[in-house]
Design goal:
By secondary structure, the chain is an alpha+beta fold. Helices cover 48% and strands 14% of the residues. It has a domain of 114 residues: Glutathione S-transferase Yfyf (Class Pi), Chain A, domain 2 (Up-down Bundle), CATH 1.20.1050. A hairpin with a 2-residue loop joins strand 1 and strand 2. The longest helix is centred in the C-terminal third of the chain and has 26 residues. Bound molecules: glutathione.
Length: 229
């Protein structure tokens, strides 16, 4: 009887009695409560992936060794170093579980549209909130009125991205082509950041129904509860 094992990037291939079994290494997500990292957690759950999560302080020295940029998410996929960038992680999760159909549709235009949505979320939507959450990064002034002025300046940009998301979703309750994808979880956790702003998702009917539908999702509710525990 031949027994052998060899390592592949994403798991272990075990050959026993001629049978081959592919065991994917469990994934480990690094997150902080309330952040975009929760989108990856939701995606892992929707995908039915084998995973664990670790709560981190992104500003800590210990986390710097995991992600030198000191931002969450990061994910250990069993490669030499943890991988980063929410949009890349989300696409990885969707690609790894094709049976769950959480990514873009086939075809040139459909694939482009999915990348376009993901780029909008990571490159426009997310940064719109930076001046609100971290005003000190956008001014050399340190007084509270100066910081408040930066926060106030963020509202116009937040309004623009909320409006765009509202139009993308339309009456479908989904961000991409009327179907559930990893983009839904990504949009949900970041749209939630607007809750306390003068302009929020509550001002847009399509966003309201999207947010309500997502909040009722079993995986989303679980992730929100466990991440805040
Ligand atoms: N480009 C990164 C940005 C990630 C990011 O900014 N994450 C925020 C939480 S939503 C963070 O870790 N902030 C901590 C900090 O900037 O100090 C990505 O898309 O993953």
């Amino acid at each position: 009887m031949r027994k052998s094992a060899e390592y592949a990037l994403d798991g272990v291939i075990v050959l026993t009695d001629g049978a081959m079994k592919i065991m994917k290494k469990p994934l480990k997500l690094y997150y902080a409560p309330g952040t975009c990292a929760l989108a990856c957690w939701i995606a892992l759950d929707w995908a039915g992936a084998e995973y664990s999560v670790e709560k981190v302080d992104p500003s800590s020295d210990s986390y710097r060794r995991i992600n030198p940029l000191r931002t969450v998410p990061a994910i250990d996929i069993g490669s030499e170093r943890p991988m980063t960038q929410a949009d890349a992680i989300l696409k990885f999760i969707a690609d790894r579980h094709p049976d769950k159909n959480l990514g873009g549709d086939e075809g040139e235009e459909a694939a482009f549209e999915f990348d376009e949505v993901m780029a909008f979320l990571s490159g426009d939507f997310h940064p719109a909130f930076w001046p609100y959450f971290s005003p000190g990064r956008f001014t050399t002034e340190t007084s509270e009125p100066a910081l408040e002025a930066v926060r106030t300046a963020s509202y116009a940009r937040v309004e623009r991205v909320l409006e765009h998301l509202h139009a993308l979703i339309g009456d479908t309750s989904h961000v991409y082509r009327g179907k559930r994808t990893v983009a839904d979880g990504y949009a949900f956790v970041m749209t939630n950041w607007s809750t306390k702003l003068p302009v929020s998702w509550r001002d847009y009917p399509n966003l309201r129904s999207f947010m309500e539908r997502m909040a009722a999702d079993e995986s989303v509710a679980k992730v929100l509860m466990q991440s805040n525990a």
